[in-house]
Each structure stands twice: as structure tokens, then as C-alpha cells.
Amino acid sequence: MMGGKKQATIIGHNMKKDVSSAALINGSASHTLDYDDTLVSFFGHPSVTIFPSLLALSEWRGKSGKDFLTSYIIGLQVGGTIGSCASLDHYMAGWHATSTLGHIASAAACSRLLGLSEKQTTYALGIGATQSSGLKRVFGTMCKPFHAGRSSQAGLLSALLAERVLRALKTFLKAPRDSSRP
After folding, report:
1. Rounded distance between C-alpha atoms, residue 51 and residue 55, angstroms
2. What's the pLDDT tens digit per position in 31-77?
3. CA spacing 20 to 30 A to 168: which of 48, 119, 162, 176?
4. Which of 20, 31, 2, 15 lies closest to 148 in space, CA to CA?
5. Which of 88, 97, 20, 90 minimizes the C-alpha distance to 56?
6. Are 28 and 36 in contact (CB under 8 A)?
């Protein structure tokens, strides 16, 4: 699946890394200067979480530009929709929405690119959500761009795991507060 093999390009450098590392490095680098896009319903920067994972996965799996663009739009729509539901309250409570929502948006985009079934995609979104984190408290440190890179990497991993074997709670967005039991 992944590991050690040179599968995807590191943007701006004459090198390739494994697909997971490429998503992490390119995602982190994309958010370093904070000159990235903003989507109001996302309460953050969606492209730094979606684009790097799709770029690495597309290169590795030989996907077309049309597949890439369609998958990007799906990820953007999923992230914006969940962001609208989370609302500004999510951000004001101290969560870095680029990271928390980015995990799920990247998982959705990568699931589409891989052609996962509805069930597999639902699992991928749940896997992305359970990895999700990112605190606004670290703004001003190197951890802020790391959030974007981790979102990209985690979304990619979520889709790859759902494609293979890993299952997740299908109702992760509407689970009761005490969700200690599936």
C-alpha cells in the first residue's frame, strides 16, 4: 500500500516520497505563509487539506485531471457542508477548522478519486473524523501549517484504509453525546 517507495512529487523540489509523506509535506508547505484560499462555510482553508492528498494520490494511481477536479469539488462540498453545520461556534470554541474539517474533506475527496462505494466512503469519513484535531491555541507556531499537512495525510490514509479493511461508525456525525457504544 504505502511506505518507502517514491510514489509522489514534493512540489518545488526534485524529489519524490511515498504518497503519505508527499501529502503531509505538500500540505504543510502550502499553509506555511497563510496565503491560501478561504471558504466561509469551511471556516478555514480547504485547498491545503484537499489538494495535496489528491495530487499525491492522482500521481501514484495515475488518475486523470477530470477525476482530480471532480474529487476536489466533492471534498470542497463535503467540507463546506459539515462546516456550515459545525458553525462559527466550532471555531470560537478553539478548534482550527482547517484541520478538524480538513481531515473529513480530504477523506471525501480521496474516496471519490479512488471510486470507493458509498459504504466505503462513509467509513473513510468516519476514519478521518476520528483522527481529526487541531487547536487554534498553536497559531503562530509551526504546528499551524502542520495541521493542514496532517489533514491532507489523514484524509488520504482514511480513504486507503476504507478501501482495504478498516471500518468506522457510519453515523459519526449524528452519534449521541455518549457514543461509548457503537
Report:
1. 6
2. 999 888 988 898 889 999 999 999 999 999 999 999 999 999 999 99
3. 48
4. 31
5. 20
6. no
